[in-house]
């Protein structure tokens, strides 16, 4: 009887909850005092605190969401429960197994054609923290029916920030989530296919599976803007992972945003700039014209100019700039020491250090291998036409050089105003000067929007690790948007990364997706039309009126009668007018830094990427298209944010591609 089954499962939930509480109490009772010294005590206490926090029981999230009956014969118990984390009783018997453990894989992957030792899969439905339903999938060769619980989950209204999908990860998503740490995966996926969700779950999976290795150098998530970061910010903590750096490209490279012409920005974003910057830096190392004269008491030691030249030549191009400079000092000092020894002295390391720091050596260094900052080099490159020409050689055409040169350079590198594209150039120079530290894994979302130079900057941050690259060629809106994932992976320094595709949409209703897909032949002709899991009949309305902005309040009031969040997406310039038109309807305006917690939000088209709302009202598509060069792609992004309904309001003619 289903009621009896539910009773039994609720009993297991109660036992598991009690066990979790007791695990937490045990963790709380542990003391850091046992650690020898104060520093170790602090570290141990930090670890214990983390453990206690991780063992918190969030009453409104399901402790387990699946159960597997396994065929007899293996080492495993006959029944396992799959949940967010391991829970065991006082005898260390597993009551719930973490979804990331190898045995849990069958929960996501088992199918009638490959049961993976599973005889029955049970999914649980929850309301709040209450277990209210279950669904059985026997693996006896019969085909499985569509899961009702999955359907309910993806139909649930989307109030507030993004949720985890741990209970309903689909087999093709699970393949990506569980790819080996050593493998870089690149996912092309239409809007709403779960790329962001998959990237976040992959981070959680890797942290669980390679806890110690990643504890040292960490995992970093890179998203398109801060509004997006705040939208996704609660997913990883809900999965028990609190120590993940979630940031934007600007967060990594510095918040430089001095406006500049898109053509100039595109040249600066091009991979050819890497060679230009490398030359620009090394042009500062010049041929020594003089030797070194080192005096100690009455003794004079001389290094001939050709000897200095040889040392410089042997270092140039074999080592990064800053360590090269330090090594040059040491080599010069060593050569002086050899002379001392020849004269029968016996100088030690301290003498070598003293010579390396001495005035004559420093003088040589300052002329032939000067101390430099990235800002100094880039300032010179962008303000000195001759220097740029020498560094650019044939990599940049004369017109391109003209375009990147500042019209009115600032007085010095200190007062220079840097653009977002400059930030990536500064970072490239910084790495040529001194090696950038690498993370163990980097997840890059909306990667189609990054320039080659930005990708190189992120590539440096996973140089000794791997990456998960997520994006959609059709949603590329920057002047340098990627045309091929192979190229993206090359710029990232992960050329052997595997490109895979997610094709089934979980967000956008079919009717809306088909409408948006009319733009695809123009924005990404090579991509197949996306498919949606959700029929959503009646989800689309397109209305023309003499004043589109004036029609917004009615559309919003209508949406307010239904459940869920409402996003009014408009061309960036129209935000104030549309917000004013909403009058006394309570609403917020999404800004680059705002979290946007109100139920009704006016969303600038430029910030809509990656976000979703139950009801979306799009105002004047023609304005959104006209606002930027890749305006059609922006419109494609905007039209694919809706979970339940999309209403398009317009006064001007709709873009021809939509008709
Ligand atoms: N397996 C799943 N089970 C339940 N919901 C899912 C699943 N996969 C994705 N979703 C939901 O579908 C929606 C879209 O997911 P997500 O934002 O990750 O897609 P995306 O591919 O990054 O979209 P976009 O390209 O538009 O940014 C989210 O609400 C997500 O929770």
UniProtKB/TrEMBL annotation:
ATP binds at residues 189-196. Gene3D superfamilies: P-loop containing nucleotide triphosphate hydrolases. Residues 168-509 form the UvrD-like helicase ATP-binding domain. One of its GO terms (molecular function) is 3'-5' DNA helicase activity. GO terms for cellular component: cytosol. InterPro entries: DNA_helicase_UvrD/REP, P-loop_NTPase, UvrD-like_ATP-bd. It comes from the Bacteria. Keywords: ATP-binding, Helicase, Hydrolase, Nucleotide-binding. GO terms for biological process: recombinational repair. This is DNA helicase. The lineage of its organism: Bacteria, Bacillati, Actinomycetota, Actinomycetes, Streptosporangiales.
């Amino acid at each position: 009887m289903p009621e009896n089954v539910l009773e039994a499962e609720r009993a297991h939930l109660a036992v598991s909850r009690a066990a979790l509480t007791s695990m937490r109490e045990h963790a709380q009772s542990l003391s850091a005092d046992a650690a020898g010294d104060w520093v170790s005590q602090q570290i141990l206490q930090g670890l214990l605190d983390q453990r206690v926090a991780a063992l918190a029981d969030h009453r409104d999230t399901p402790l387990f969401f699946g159960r597997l009956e396994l065929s007899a014969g293996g080492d495993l118990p006959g029944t396992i429960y799959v949940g967010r984390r391991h829970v065991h009783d006082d005898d260390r018997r597993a009551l719930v197994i973490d979804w990331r453990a190898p045995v849990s894989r069958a929960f996501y992957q088992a199918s009638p054609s490959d049961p993976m030792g599973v005889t029955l899969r049970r999914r649980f439905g929850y309301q709040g923290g209450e277990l209210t339903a279950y669904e059985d999938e026997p693996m006896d060769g019969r085909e499985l029916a569509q899961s009702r619980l999955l359907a309910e989950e993806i139909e649930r209204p989307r109030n507030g920030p993004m949720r985890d999908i741990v209970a309903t990860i689909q087999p093709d998503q699970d393949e990506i989530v569980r790819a080996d740490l050593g493998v870089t995966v690149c996912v092309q996926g239409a809007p709403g296919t779960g790329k962001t969700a998959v990237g976040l779950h992959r981070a959680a999976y890797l942290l669980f599976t390679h806890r110690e290795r990643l504890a040292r150098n960490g995992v970093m998530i890179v998203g398109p803007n801060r509004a997006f970061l705040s939208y996704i910010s609660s997913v990883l903590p809900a999965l028990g992972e609190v120590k993940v750096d979630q940031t934007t490209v600007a967060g990594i490279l510095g918040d430089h945003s001095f406006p500049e012409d898109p053509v100039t920005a595109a040249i600066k974003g091009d991979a050819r700039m890497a060679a230009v910057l490398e030359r620009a830096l090394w042009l500062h190392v010049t041929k020594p014209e003089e030797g070194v004269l080192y005096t100690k008491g009455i003794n004079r030691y001389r290094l001939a100019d050709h000897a200095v030249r040889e040392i410089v030549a042997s270092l140039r191009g074999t080592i990064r700039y800053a360590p090269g400079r330090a090594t040059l000092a040491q080599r010069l000092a060593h050569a002086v020491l050899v002379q001392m020894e020849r004269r029968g002295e016996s100088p030690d390391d301290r003498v070598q250090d003293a010579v390396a720091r001495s005035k004559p050596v420093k003088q040589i260094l300052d002329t032939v291998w000067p101390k430099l900052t990235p800002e100094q080099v880039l300032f010179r490159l962008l303000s000195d036409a001759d220097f740029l020409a020498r560094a650019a050689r044939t990599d940049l055409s004369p017109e391109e050089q003209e375009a990147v040169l500042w019209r009115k350079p600032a007085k010095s590198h200190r007062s220079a105003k840097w653009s977002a594209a400059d930030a990536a150039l500064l970072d490239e120079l910084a790495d040529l000067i001194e090696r950038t530290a690498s993370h163990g894994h980097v997840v890059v979302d909306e990667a189609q929007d990054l320039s080659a130079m930005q990708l190189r900057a992120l590539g440096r941050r996973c140089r000794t690790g791997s990456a998960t690259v997520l994006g959609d060629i059709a949603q590329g809106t920057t002047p340098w948007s990627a045309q091929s994932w192979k190229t993206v992976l090359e710029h990232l320094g992960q050329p052997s990364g595997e490109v895979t595709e997610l094709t089934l949409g979980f967000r956008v209703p079919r009717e809306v997706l088909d409408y948006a897909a009319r733009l695809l032949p123009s924005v990404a002709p090579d991509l197949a039309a996306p498919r949606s899991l959700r029929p959503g009949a009646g989800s689309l309305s397109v209305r023309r009126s003499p004043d589109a902005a004036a029609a917004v309040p009615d559309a919003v009031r209508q949406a307010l009668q239904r459940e869920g969040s409402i996003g009014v997406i408009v061309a960036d310039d129209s935000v104030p007018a549309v917000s004013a038109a909403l009058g006394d309807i309570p609403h917020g305006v999404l800004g680059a830094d705002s979290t946007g917690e109100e139920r009704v939000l006016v969303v600038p088209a430029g910030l809509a990427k990656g976000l979703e709302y139950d009801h979306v009202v799009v105002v004047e598509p023609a304005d959104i298209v006209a606002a930027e060069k890749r305006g059609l792609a922006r419109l494609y992004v905007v039209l694919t944010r809706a979970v339940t309904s999309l209403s398009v309001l317009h006064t001007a003619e709709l873009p021809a591609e939509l008709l």
